[in-house]
């Protein structure tokens, strides 16, 4: 298995576990600090990180879109391939025209779920057993779509997949079975490219980004599990990809793919830039947060330079206020 550089120091390892002590805030300090790249990947081999799920120890499981791989990145800087999705003959995925593995979600028992887009009958949600192994398709999705972000609601026992081409949020039983078009509408549709993209379940709602429209959307989950009306929480987030909540409230860290930046989006919809290409970002695709540790994957699909995994420190914890 290929190796990637070891974390530079014990301090960096502590950062990865979210253990670095917080200094008192002065009001003039940046919200996100101590950015550093902990893993570099091989662009020529298709190792373009698309999405991320975190393990309990702070290590990460990533999807490599064009390599069709799911890999584990350890805190010592090693990578291990957990699974490789099938080599599909004549893939015809809309927009990308290749077979790609996109969103990833992790259950508490270590089971991984990923979206696989191929333009064929292999398109759908696939399950990988804890520790890796042969992936198994548990739900088919339309080959005319591009399932992108993936979120798991273990309390309800369902998965939600955001379709960037069909502008649909699909709902699938966690155990597998037929997919239901749970949410649709103009706010989820593309405007010539990628529509619904990143997706998260948070405090009784499904949150979705729309890349073309630069919006962050909230869809309440009603008591009968149907979708409530789509609410726009933020706009002017050009090229927004996946995102993560920076605490228990509504503050979000969002990857802005085209501009190579990460934005902090407040509950009022305003946003500020907290990470840029000078920090090492190269077309960021997804964000994850564990405690005060921020993880950002960069696919470098536009920059064509240095796909990587970056870690940083979140100075403030954003609670429910």
Describe the protein.
It is a single chain. The protein is mainly β and 321 residues long. It contains 1 helix and 24 strands. A hairpin with a 5-residue loop joins β6 and β7 (112-117). The radius of gyration is 18 Å and the shape is globular. The relative contact order is 0.15.
Q: How many DSSP H or I helices?
A: 1
Question: What characterizes the major β-sheet?
Answer: 4 strands, antiparallel
Distance between the termini: 45 Å
What value does the average pLDDT take?
A: 91
Radius of gyration: 18 Å
Low-confidence stretches: 1-26
Main sheet: which strands, in order across? 1-24-23-22
- Percent of residues in helices: under 10%
Strand tally:
24
How much strand content do the residues show? 35-45%
Oligomeric state of shown chains: single chain
SS-derived structural category: mainly beta
Could you spell the SSE succession in H and E letters?
A: HEEEEEEEEEEEEEEEEEEEEEEEE
Shape: globular
Write the layout of secondary structure elements.
Blueprint: H1 10-16, E1 32-40, E2 49-54, E3 60-64, E4 69-73, E5 79-84, E6 100-106, E7 112-117, E8 124-128, E9 136-140, E10 147-153, E11 158-163, E12 168-173, E13 180-183, E14 196-202, E15 205-210, E16 215-220, E17 231-234, E18 240-245, E19 252-256, E20 261-265, E21 271-275, E22 284-290, E23 293-298, E24 308-314
Antiparallel strand pairs: 1-24, 2-3, 3-4, 4-5, 6-7, 7-8, 8-9, 10-11, 11-12, 12-13, 14-15, 15-16, 16-17, 18-19, 19-20, 20-21, 22-23, 23-24
State the main characteristics.
4-stranded antiparallel β-sheet; 44% strand; disordered N terminus
